[in-house]
Amino acid sequence: PQEIVSEENEEESNGVNLMEFSDEILLHILSYVPCTDLVLNVRRTCRKLATLCLDKSLTHTVLLQKDYKVNKDKVKQLMRDIGKEIYQLNMAGCYWLPSSTIDHVTRCKNLVKLNLSGCHITSLRLSKMLSTLQHLRSLAIDVNPGFDASQLSSECKATLSRVSELKQTLYTPSYGVVPCCTSLEKLLLYFEILDRSREGFMLSGQLMVGESNVPHYQNLRVFYARLAPGYVNQEVVRLYLAVLSDRTPENLHAFLISAPGSFAETGATKNLLDSMARNVRLDALQLPKAWINGSGLLQHLKFNNPFYFSFSRCTLSGGHLIQRVINGGKDLKSLTSLNLSGCVHCLAPESLFRKAEDDIDSSILESLVVSCCNLRHLNLSAAHHHSPESIGNHLCQLLSRLKHLLSLALPVCSITDVAADVEKPPTASNLVPQTFGRKVRIGIQTYPRNLADQANQKIESSVFWALMGSLRFLETLEIIGSSFSSAMPRNEPAIRNSLPPCVRAQSVGDSEVAAISQLTYLQSLTLAQLPNILTGSGLIHVGLQCQHLRTLSLANLGMMGKVVYMSALMDMLKHCKCLRDLRLEQPYFCAGAQFFQALSHCSSLQRLCIVSRSGTLQSDAVMSFMANCLEVIMCHMFMGESLTVCKNLQQSIVRSFQADRPALNVVIFPLLHEDLTEVIRDVPMRHLDEITLFKSRVAEEPPNLWW
């Protein structure tokens, strides 16, 4: 046909005409193309594609949340062309779009699900928009300072009264739209309220005068609250919980509160938990550690078909875990996600007289593996899980039975081959101090430089190599030192000193990283505080074999006074064609021309974050990198350079590339500067939460909590 003349060359060379495929195959192919490209570009190429691109299977759900090239005009045209066909619209994290963009959502009269988290929206705009969306049942929004519920119209409140799922991110003390949602079944709350204003004034957790204090929870099935650090967030969440403590919804099946630090139990929360123990059967549970530690709560709570448990940072012992939660394995086949991060005694029978570094009780882990045989997500990080010397009882050997695992987080010391570690005499690398103090000259180290030689040394005996070989479908892996802490915590100045790695972890290095290369389908890899990285040669193998890798986070590998793996990292990056997010945290990191030339091979890269005490950068190299890598929309660099150098580079990047990259977010700032926390608070939450701040993300939330 005349419309597809442009494809003649491809047809002649391959003997295949794309347009000859069936509609079903073409629709499947088109489903991988961003909706904006389908509607605004692809459908204009020929008549057949013009019809297919408007198929209901492609226009029913529109995802703009990571379409960083979309702008206000494209959204306007998209809504004009297919607005009436859209039933689900996800614009989460589109921080670069002006608030007036939301006005065009009113064209989507049939919307059932709408996600505007991270978008700029005022009370009046929200009211106008929701007044036209009579079919809406699921909504996600931010509540910012200045939000006024009294500005919501009666039509808007009528729409909210029919909403059954609400996700609300709070940046100011408020109930938001919760009191208007009288049919709520799922409520997700994210508390991001700072304790101090920009002017330095202390904020109060008291809500605005005149706000209703009677949320409607009678139909609630899922309650989830995630708190950022800060006292005000704790004050406000208690107001949300007050109504629950008076009357617990009969249909409640998921109750989850994620709170960092200390969040004390009160009389009201104790009444709530007692009521839950009497009246409901749960499928998902997460509580602040103070609510579980030392209480018999778990003994009284009843579970139905649990799919998610998080006991993060709790002092729960393995004995209690087996007796009170696993219940002999009768009810845990349904469990798909388990977070035991920071639960230092969870694999020991008792915690009273046990040291954190003592060996685990393998029988407890075996009971866990047998009972929870369908686990897909498991987090055992931030603890010392040392395996005993007995044959067949190593943590890695037991975990290899979990054939359905998709994501796994482990402490570095847990993957050590015990026999090899016991027999191995201390090497020169083990004696190197892991601090920033005076350098100790230890002579020439001898180690294999060839990757194959290194890997072959342990392939026959390494339990970690065997574990990686048995988890072929693993997509996310985190190996994090049990004493590792990032130099960039959330609301505090940068940490100047880090704790030394666990003694049992001292031998973990290049050969263990090489073992990870067996994970063919790996998409996300985090490595932090691996002391025995000598050359980084294992990284090259990962780059070659893990071709689906999208997210890479490396922190404090090898000696702290020198970046020993730089050459290997640059070789690795040349093979990472699918890499989208890269986070590097390493003292004395030199972000120079050679590094950025290697990074330029990552043609899909979108976000880069470098955190380096005493680190240096070359401004010309950064500018050249940004010019070559057209997909990069986030560049965060916290280094040892002066404030003047950082500001000049940041302004140059914004001035040169902002016009062509509407989502561009650039933060270049001295790591140890006293105003770092003020700079961090302006970073879009999507970037801050997903890459800039270091944390373990495995089983952080229940799977499919939101769409």
Topology (SSEs and partners):
Blueprint: H1 8-14, H2 23-30, H3 35-40, H4 47-52, H5 56-59, E1 61-63, H6 72-82, E2 88-90, E3 113-115, H7 123-130, E4 138-143, H8 154-162, E5 165-170, E6 186-191, E7 222-227, H9 231-246, E8 254-258, H10 267-279, E9 281-286, H11 289-292, H12 297-300, E10 302-310, H13 318-326, E11 337-339, H14 362-371, E12 377-379, H15 395-399, E13 407-411, H16 418-423, H17 451-459, H18 463-470, E14 476-480, H19 510-516, E15 524-528, H20 537-545, E16 551-555, H21 566-573, E17 581-585, E18 590-591, H22 593-599, E19 607-611, E20 616-617, H23 619-628, E21 634-639, H24 643-657, E22 665-670, H25 676-680, H26 685-692
Parallel strand pairs: 1-2, 2-3, 3-4, 4-5, 5-6, 6-7, 7-8, 8-9, 9-10, 10-11, 11-12, 12-13, 13-14, 14-15, 15-16, 16-17, 17-19, 18-20, 19-21, 21-22
